[in-house]
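Tokens help. Our protein:
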Amino acid sequence: MEKINNMVRKFINSVAILLVSTFLVPLIIAIFFVWLLKQVFNIDLQKEGTKVKDKLEKDLAAEKELIRKEKKSAEKEKKIVDKE
């Protein structure tokens, strides 16, 4: 029975070490580097993210407008061809 308990305990310890080394440590390092970048370059990442989001939304709206115009043009051409 003690052998099984030791085996289970070792397994749990191994899983805990695996989780810490593959998830927590990289996450903490990433958070540290983001903080360091903010400190060194004095950047506000939320404002930068908002700028990118706004640009993407503007580009998407322009793309939708272009598609709408192309559809209209195709419909007009189809009507012209149908009349002939």
User: Anything to note?
Assistant: The chain is about 95% helix and 0% strand. The CA atoms of residues 54 and 60 lie 10 Å apart. The first helix runs from residue 2 to 41. The helical segments are 2-41, 45-83.
